Every structure is written in structure tokens, then in C-alpha cells.
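Feature request disguised as a bug: please show the residue count (373) next to 2Fe-2S iron-sulfur cluster-binding protein in the output. Example input:
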Amino acid sequence: MTTGYHPELIQRVFVDFVSTHIHSFGSLIAPKLRLLAKHTLSDDLIALQFETNHAFRQQSNNHWHGGQHLSLIVPIDGIHHQRQYSLLGLPQQALWWQSKKPHTLTIAIKSQGLVSKYLTQKTLLGDVFACNVPSGNFVLPHMQDEPTPILCIASGSGITPMLGLVTQALMNRQSVTLLHYNRTPILTSFWASLAATYPTFRYHLIATQDVSTYFAGNRYLTTASLLALGLPLAQTQIYACGAQSLLLSLYQAARELTVDDTASLLDNITIERFGTSVNHHDQEGSETDSIAQTVHLRGRQRQFTSRTTLLKSAEAAGIRLPHGCRQGICHLCRCQKISGQVKNIQTGVVSGEGFESIQTCISVPVTDVVLDI
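Example output, currently without the count:
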């Protein structure tokens, strides 16, 4: 019997093209989600439950880790917008308001911004969206012989990746402590259920408008807050997601604490940057504390002043630049820097002074800059 190359008579891509025109959810190649339900978690946080298609399940092995996210592609008025949203919980985990359904996932969205408002207010049950499979490094490290304590710190909608992260850590027999700063306590029944199931789980819900809920006598995260937890901080892995002010206060508190002669508590911190899980670096001065610099757009013969990211400053000056996710993931904002230095606010790395490819959504000018735009 002869063997060798056998041409594919009907290309799989063509079959997929036909199938998606017959049924938009039935792609063999492209991961897609179909909206099944909406659930209000708080005044401004909405959970959306989706069914996954065959391509999604095949490419993701129907699995993801606690703390990961996915990119959702949302068409609005003929323009495709891409945004990243944290996954709520773990695969096959029925959340407290849901009946257990196979092949589903849930995200939680704060109803603000063009795309998020559209998803929470304009979409209909049954709507189909293209997406990427789950990704991101805001996850637990590989299990060690001796489980390490975990401290999760969140503010506002930064709580969403914590549901899966906390649950997975507890399933790994790790002790977990949660601090959540928000205007009002949310997800209280979920945390209470976890605490009843796992004795190693403690949580503190700080309603920033209610003095009676303050932890360690303070509305904000402080050194006293960390010490009051009674954790072996030198051995504790800290995961944080939330507003820049929360992250800065965490770094400040960590710098003020001496936990080991050879290591800093800063080394234990991991923050969520939607796909770029960043271990500690000094982010003070990364945006609003920067000195104003002049940015020249050579191709347009325009210039503007910037003390924050190049994209934000250009928009403030009424100049439209190409962009997509605004978080350094999609690279649609990438352009060529001709001269000058910029700082990447995700990694803290300062560029060279010459010709270089940069992303305007995560680059803050350190000197005057010339861009080939």
C-alpha cells in the first residue's frame, strides 16, 4: 500500500466558513461564546454567563486556572473592540446563583466604558461573540511539598479573578486570607460558603463608606493592616488586583516591613495586569507623577505634551491614535519611536534613545520623544 502526501480535497477553513454562515456559533476553528444569562452582583458589577463552542473547548482543553482571563471581541457599530475580562470561578464550577451547566464560563463586568456598557446593557441572550481561549499568568505557582499561605488583596472589580484563585488555592490545601476594599460588601454568600467549607479560609470585606467595617482601624491598606492579619509574611504569596492607589499602598506597606534579612516582602507580590502578571517593581511615578515631556508626531506635523501614557495624552490633546485593548495586549497601538526614551509602565523598563518599536498605551515619555506617526 502506497503512502505519502494526500491533498485535502475540501479545506477545513472552507468547511468552517460555510458552517459559520449556517450557524454563527458552530465554528470548527474560531473559539466563540454564546450569552446564556446575566446576573447582578452589585450596583455596578454584572456577571455574564456564556456557553462555549466546540472550538473553544478543543483549544482550551475545556480548562483554565484560577485568576486567568480571556479576550472578548465585541462588534459595536461595525467596529470590532477587543477587551480582557477575568474569569469568575473555575471550570465546571457552579456559582451560587447558577444551575450547574456543562461547557459554560462566567465573567464579571463593571458597567462602565463603551464595551462594558454595551455588554451589560445592550446585548441579548443568545448573542454570539468571538474570543480567545483563557490565558494570563496571574495564577498560583506549581505546588510545592509544603503549601504556602496565600494573601489576596483586591479593590472594586479587582475581586473577579480572586474567586477562582482563592478556590483553587483552598483545593490545594493552602491557607488563604482575602482583603476586599469596595464601596459596599459584595459576594458575601460566596465567601461565607467557602469559609464554612474550608477552615483555612479567612476574609475581610472592607466597605470604604462604612467606618464599622474598617480593618485595623483604617479605610485604606496600610502596614498595620498587613501586620494585623497575623500571617507569616516572609512565606506568604501576595496576589493583588485593583486600582492603582491600592497597588501603590501595598508597595509602600511592603517597603516599610522587614520580614527577612535576605529577602524583601516586595518579592512576594504578584499583580494582575491582564495577561502580564507582574512581580513587584516600583510603579510610583509611572504615570501621573512623571515630568511633562513634548511628543512630536513626525508624519502629522503635530505635537502634544505628555506626563502620562502617550495614548492618553494624545487623546487629551484631541489627537486620535490607533489602539485596541489599551492594556498592552493586542499591540494595535504599536508604532516606531524615532528618538527619545519611554518607560513601559507594566515592566518598568526604560527604552533606549534611538529607533525602536513601542506601544503607546503602556509607554510614558521620560524625555522629549519623536514618533513616526
